[in-house]
Design brief:
With 218 residues, this protein is of the alpha/beta class. The chain has 2 domains: 121 residues, Rossmann fold, CATH 3.40.50.2300; 91 residues, Winged helix-like DNA-binding domain superfamily/Winged helix DNA-binding domain (Arc Repressor Mutant, subunit A, Orthogonal Bundle). 43% of the residues lie in helices and 22% in strands. The protein contains 8 helices and 12 strands. The strands form 3 sheets. It has a 5-stranded parallel sheet with strand order 2-1-3-4-5, sandwiched between helices. Strand 7 and strand 8 form a beta hairpin. Helix 6 packs across helix 7 and helix 6 packs across helix 8. The longest helix has 18 residues. It is elongated. It starts with a strand and ends with a strand. Bound molecules: calcium ion. The site of calcium ion has 5 residues, from loops.
Amino acid sequence: MTTILLVEDEPRIAAFVSRGLESAGYTTVIVDDGAEGLLRALAGDIDLVLLDVGLPTLDGFDVLRQLRAHGSSVPVIMLTARSSTRDTVEGLDAGANDYVAKPFTFEELLARVRSRLRESATAAGVSVAHGDVVLDVLGRRATVDGREVELSAREFALAEQFLRNPGRVLSREQLLSRVWGMDFDPGSNVVDVYVRYLRGKLGVHHIITVRGAGYRWE
Ligand code: CA
């Protein structure tokens, strides 16, 4: 599931964009205020932000600067009111990944959305995040709510399987073969033991037991 946050205070534009994105298979969240948009973008479950410039409480440039200052690398496409060079330069300086000048056609916007999401999917090989849990795959470091947590190599590999497949049931057999390799005894309870370890380290509420099927990351 790909979730797009739309920060736009013009109800007609918000409705038009959101309807199009939903029918293209994306989940959308609409916020009509800058400060609220910033909080929502920082919540961690957003894959891409469409950000208007003229907004109540905080304008789009301020939202973007604060978002980057908080360390967020979520892709952001600015919706600039004019195709003015000043807006474009200021947006890119503040850390925007792209911009679309109003008025735009939906196809134009969708093409930008798809291409920015594709780029970030490539970069996502480096780090995976879900909710408050972040795995830095290259550095082999895990953090929960910003605090670093020590994980063994197996724990890390298991956590990575869950974070790359959030909301999906993973069977014990799948987890055994992906994390421990095929040579492991399928009757072994090692998966259950390691799920217990992970619950202890990452928080008990993330991994749900699905009776008779396996485990699911919530
Ligand atoms: Ca506006």
